[in-house]
Amino acid sequence: MILYNGQFVEREEVSIDIEDRGYQFGDGVYEVIRVYQGQCFAMKEHLDRLERSSKEIKLDCPISRMKLEDNINQLIKKDRLTNGIVYLQITRGAAKRTHQFPEHAKSVLTAYTSEMERPLANLQNGINTKLVDDFRWLRCDIKSLNLLGNVLAKQEAQENQCYEAILHRQGTVTEGSSSNVFIVKNGKLYTHPANNFILNGITRQYVLRFAKEEHFEVIENTFSTEELLKADEVFITSTTSEISPVVKIDDQIIGEGRPGIVTAALQKKFEEEINKLVSH
Ligand code: PMP
């Protein structure tokens, strides 16, 4: 089922106005929440980020936080979802096409679920990646529907048989096309600071916490593509990719071409977190 404008309806019953601003301008925000064994992982953090993204683009959420949480849980039950995701988006609604905000548009919230298994092969064997120029706008901290820069980067990676694009601005690594990037050098972790150049990933925030708990030093500072290529370990984080080791970047093998020990320790912590959720 689809949660559309506060109602649960069948997909065929949803009618999107051709002048919806999400459709015409990408004028809206979204979230992807992971579901393990029918339970939402980090729902609070995702809804906090949705609120923040909305506020940053001056968009009102059409329903209350409590109702939204309840509706998401209902949606998972109605769809009998075990492993998958909930996709949520809010657009500024439909109105005669003008760039500036229309006076009378009502924001529209849509949510639906999709089945998705855990990326077990990637977690175990690692992934290949490609360095791609980051030419996106300067508010990458907003989880906006405008994903063309990310789409083009991921496509370039895929055309080169790579799972993910690692983006850089003039040699400074920012993040992945749909993930955050960490490197490990001499036992220390490095990741781009959470500023306007990256999305502050929920998985990234979990990894920062795990690293502290495991007494790994974390440096939230920029690093270069050279440092990336010379790292002992590299991994990406995201809601759907979890903590995926990077074993190749362009033609360069990372570490020994297999997941490193720091990455494995963090993956173990993540696994424990999932187990805590599903054993409730
Ligand atoms: N950066 C970008 C550009 C993304 O699209 C995502 C995926 N939402 C992330 C980082 C990772 O964020 P999260 O861990 O919250 O999924």
Describe this entry's structure for a reader.
This protein has 280 residues and is an alpha+beta fold. The chain has 2 domains: 2-115, D-amino Acid Aminotransferase, Chain A, domain 1, CATH 3.30.470; 120-278, D-amino Acid Aminotransferase, subunit A, domain 2 (D-amino Acid Aminotransferase, Chain A, domain 2, Alpha-Beta Barrel), CATH 3.20.10. Helix content is 31%, strand content 29%. The chain has helices at residues 21-25, 43-56, 65-78, 120-125, 148-159, 202-213, 225-229, 261-278; strands spanning 2-4, 7-9, 28-36, 39-41, 84-91, 108-115, 127-133, 164-169, 172-176, 180-185, 188-191, 218-220, 233-238, 242-249, 252-253. The strands form 2 sheets. Strands 7, 8, 9, 10, 11, 12, 13, 14 and 15 form a 9-stranded mixed beta sheet that branches. Strand 1 (2-4) and strand 2 (7-9) form a beta hairpin. The longest helix is centred in the C-terminal third of the chain and has 18 residues, at 261-278. The protein is globular, with a radius of gyration of 19 Å. The structure holds 4'-deoxy-4'-aminopyridoxal-5'-phosphate.
